[in-house]
Structures are given as C-alpha cells and as structure tokens.
Amino acid sequence: MKIVLSLQRHLAWLNLPAAILVALLQRTPVVRVAASAGEILTSSPAGAVLKATVAVLGSLGAVHSLAGATTLVATPTASPLRVTAGTAITNVTMTVTGAQSQPASFSVSGTIAPGLTVSGLSGSGGTVNGSFLTLSGTPTTAGTFNLTVRAWQNPGAKGDTSSLFTYSVIVAAATPVRPVFTLSPASQTVAVGANVTFNSTASGTPLPTYQWRKDGVDIPNATGISFTLTNVTLAQAGVYTVVATNSAGATTSNSATLVVNGPTVAAPAFTTQPASLTVAAGSTAVLNSTATDATTYRWQRNGTDIAGATSPNLVLKEVTALAHAGTYRVIATNSTGSTTSSTATLVINTVAATDTSRLINLSILTTAGPGAKVLTVGAVVGPLNFSGTLPLVIRAVGPTLGAFGLSDVLADPVLTLNASGVSTPVTTNDNWGGGASMIAAFSSVGAFALSSPLDSAALSSATPGGYTVQVTGKDTASGLVLAEIYDNSTTRTATSPRLINLSTLTQIDAGATLAVGFVLRGNTARTVLVRGIGPSLGTIFGLGGVMTDPKLELFNNDTGAKVTENDNWGGDAQLMDAAASVGAFALADTATKDAVLLVTLPPGAYSARVGGVGTSAGTAIIEVYELP
Hints:
Layout: H1 2-10, H2 18-25, H3 28-37, H4 45-69, E1 71-75, E2 81-84, E3 92-97, E4 105-110, E5 116-118, E6 126-129, E7 133-137, E8 143-154, E9 158-161, E10 165-172, E11 177-183, E12 188-191, E13 196-199, E14 201-205, E15 209-214, E16 217-218, E17 226-229, E18 238-246, E19 249-252, E20 256-261, E21 269-272, E22 277-280, E23 285-287, E24 290-292, E25 296-301, E26 304-305, E27 314-316, H5 321-324, E28 326-333, E29 338-340, E30 344-349, E31 358-368, E32 375-382, E33 390-397, E34 413-419, E35 427-429, H6 436-445, E36 456-462, E37 465-473, E38 479-487, E39 498-508, E40 513-521, E41 526-533, H7 535-541, E42 550-556, E43 562-566, H8 573-582, E44 595-601, E45 604-612, E46 618-626
Parallel strand pairs: 2-10, 12-20, 22-30
Antiparallel strand pairs: 1-3, 3-7, 4-6, 4-8, 5-7, 8-9, 8-10, 11-14, 13-17, 15-16, 15-18, 18-19, 18-20, 21-24, 23-27, 25-26, 25-28, 28-29, 28-30, 31-38, 31-40, 32-37, 32-39, 33-36, 33-38, 34-35, 34-37, 39-46, 40-45, 41-44, 41-46, 42-43, 42-45
C-alpha cells in the first residue's frame, strides 16, 4: 500500500492541464524520470499514459531540432541565383542540413520564374515529396522572383516542419538578337487534293514569333513554326514565306514555291447509255445518260445537234412521229476529249388511251412499329378532273411472309385507309377473313395468296383524290411487313381513273436501304418522276429527324439491272418543270441533297431504293409520279 501511495504522489503531474504538461515535458530531467519509471509502470494504466507522454515528448524534441538547427543548402549556387532570360540555367539542388533525419517532403510557395520549374512545379508552387528539390529550365521573363521553401518530416507536407527559407532568382533581360533562319521552307510540287507542310526554324533573342504569308499577304491564323495545307486546290498555288519577329526586328525566310498540278482526267466514260423507247404519241419521253468526268453534254437526233440539248438527260414533251421519231445519241466532253454514247431509237406509236402504260401497283417491304416507325403509304387516283371510281386491293402482309423464309415479321398487322382531308377512315382491317371475293381479287391483280388469317386486306373503290394507308402492329408490336396497293380495274375507258402517284413515308436506319416496288402495265413506255426526299421534309414541313443525304437508285426487277441513280438533284430545271407538271411539291431550294430521277420505262416491274449516304439516317419519302 505504501508503494502505491508513493506512486500516486509521483504521478500526480499526469493530471496537469495540457499546456503545462507540454512545458514540463520539454525539460530534460523529466525525460529521465519518465524513462526510469517506465519499467515499474509497464503493466499499470498509468504506465500506458506515461508511454504515450514519452512518445509525444520525442516528437516535440524532433520539432525543436528541425526548426532550430536546419539550414537550406543550394548546390551549386546559393541565393540569389543570377541568370539571363533565354539562357538555360545549371540545375540547382536544394535540401536542408542539421536535422535529425532527412525531410520527406517540401512545400514551395512564392513565385517561380516563368520558364523554370522546381521539381516539376511552376507558377506559385505546391508540394513535392522527396528529400531534395531541383530548380531547372530556361527563364523567359526578366525580374526578381522569390521562392519560399519549407521542409517537412513526412510526405505530403505533414508532420514536423522546418522554418521558412527564401531562395531568390534574379533574371536579367537578354541582349536582343535579330532572328536568323536556320531552316527555311522548301518549294514543293503536288497534285490537287494532296496535303502540304512547310517547315521553318529561326533562332533569336528573345525567341521569335512567326507569321506565314502567301504571295506577300499574311495568312490568317498561320502563326506556327510550320504551316500545313490539306486537300490543296489550284487556287492555293503560289509563293510562301514566313516572317520571324522579336524585339530586335523581323527577318523573312527564303521563298518556297508551291506548284499544284490539276488532276489527270480521262476522257468521259458512259455509265448510263440512252435506251431505245417506244412511247405513245402526245406523251413525254426521256432519254437518260451518265458519263464520268464529263463537263458538257451535246445531244443529236439523226446525227444533227439539237438546239439547247446540253443536259445529261433529254426530255421530249408531247412527242410526235414527225418531230421526234429517230435515232439519238449524246456526246460527253471534258478537257481531255469527247466520248459518244451508243445510239437509241425513239419510236412513236398511236395507241388507244386504254393501252398506254400506267401504274398498277406499289409495294414496300420494311419494318413497321409504333411512333416514327408507323408505315404510311400514299396514293393519288386521277386525273383529278376525271369521274368514276377505281377499285383497289390494299394489303398489309406480316405472318404470311414467314412462308417465304423471312423472320421477325409483324405478327398481327392492322391497316387503315383514309381519304385526304377526311378524319373518318374509308376502311380499316385487322385479320382479312379469307373470303372468296377477297381471294378472287388477289388472283385478279396477280398478288400471292395469304396463308395466315392474321394478315390484313381490304377492297375499296376510290374516286379521284389523295389517299393514305397506315400500317401498324397490335399495341406496341413491330416487325417486317409488306404493304401493297393494287389497281383492280378490269374494264377501262379513256376517262377511267388510274393511279397517278404512289408514295411511302418511313424511317430508314443508317446503312439500311428502303426498297419501293412499282409496276407499269400497257403497250408503251411511260415516263415517271421518282424522288427520294429527306432534307426538304424538314425545311418545308418541319419534320424532325429527317435523312439529310438520301441516294436514289432505280432497278429493273425483271432483269436485276440498275437503270440509273441520283445523289443530289442539283437544281435541274427539267426536274423542277416535271415536278410542277404533276403537282409535286417544290423542293426547298436548288442546293438540297434530295435525290430525283426522271426516266421513261417500258412496261415491267421496278424498284426504287433509297439509302443514306455515309451515316445519314432518318425519315424519308419515296414518290413515284406518272407524267402525261
């Protein structure tokens, strides 16, 4: 018990306030008392407190040693360091001496001279982990710059710390030296479309800036040590120089001449030859041609130039045997030479109105679904000044497509027929029912039989005017579907209505192609206007998400051959005139990337295919118009 009481008396100082305790602990005799009592108190609670106190004491002693005895040492140059702007300095290493151990980090503040770094730090500094600092680089700005350095016991500027040290860098302004070119740009000869780079190097004090010129005129924004032209044109040929400038003056490099050679062009080569045609008297006939690299075209009839016929396509209106029958060819020309097309014969027949070729069918195979994927097919029955009705067969085929090996079909399509401007549908159908009259109508128009009752079909009689057919799936279903409109007339007169326009509006994915099939029937060829429209839908009608650059291709389904194609209609006056003659809306302007074809086709089955150029995708409309 006496031992315990004595111990308590000796340890009463452990309950002193923290500030007094710290002051006492900084006295060396207490350290010896604490150390001698340590063995006695090893297993007691008071011993644990005493051990913690000894640890604090050791830390405080280290702080005292680092703060009071350390010195900043800079090798090989002590503060201040005197240097010249534009001249690289000899690296200076900084550390501290006199501490019990090497520091683990440094904090650097103040202003580091522009162009110099302190162990990677610039500007106003920061923290560096390590036992020393390195000042290096090439100063760029004259002035006096003072760094403040503090050493730390632990990484990250933590633990015990030294006092603050100042290191000064005095940067004297360099004597200006006028720029001198050690590398001037070199003359080059390239072909149109190539990329060209001119290089230069100039010395000088201070470092110079650069300005490139063409034919003695500054080139905007061309202020680098090199200058690059991409996809050069003939207009960029000329003399190039670069001016290097600093406070001592300006120096112009030697001249470099850029020669740009025009492309080597072969004589035109025909990819579309004019085809022989037999058309009805009074109708429109179009002879088409396309030649690569052609700059001009010149059409001839029976070997004689046709006045004003200088377009790739020759449009002949209200043809007669006397004025238009004969042989035709076109001569395509460019700077290299001329190429003459093959000869096409135009035959003019006088036939009954009931025997002239006409549109009898439109079909489209695509994916239909909700929202933007709703499939809309349009038709115009006319001419609009005719009377009477045209019997139609309308179908939306989904499940039966499986019999043809197609997958992911629309399981239960629904069709709705609407007259233009009328809100109440003319007819709707969900599940065609398999009636005998329907089967007979399918056979009459040459349509394949339906094997599933879930397909949709309707019979309707249409007076002259516009109509739309919409195809959707049940609820939010989507899938592959075939939409069809057939002319189901069996007897005709000169004033019987007919299909004069067929169209479809749908969304086309990037990389996909929408194919619209149509059939011409009769004893003569017929001129049609085919359009693949995207950009104008947005500009004129305010539709969003339109296809920005459609390409249109026309194929003969009976032979599989491509008839012709168009990417960007080019504002052709003949195409504008044809659109106006059939009542088609005018395109937004002559520079749109819509695609248009005007072509005379013999009776048969054809498909107009629209896809986006590159990654172009979105909503597009395909239209087929019959021309008078």
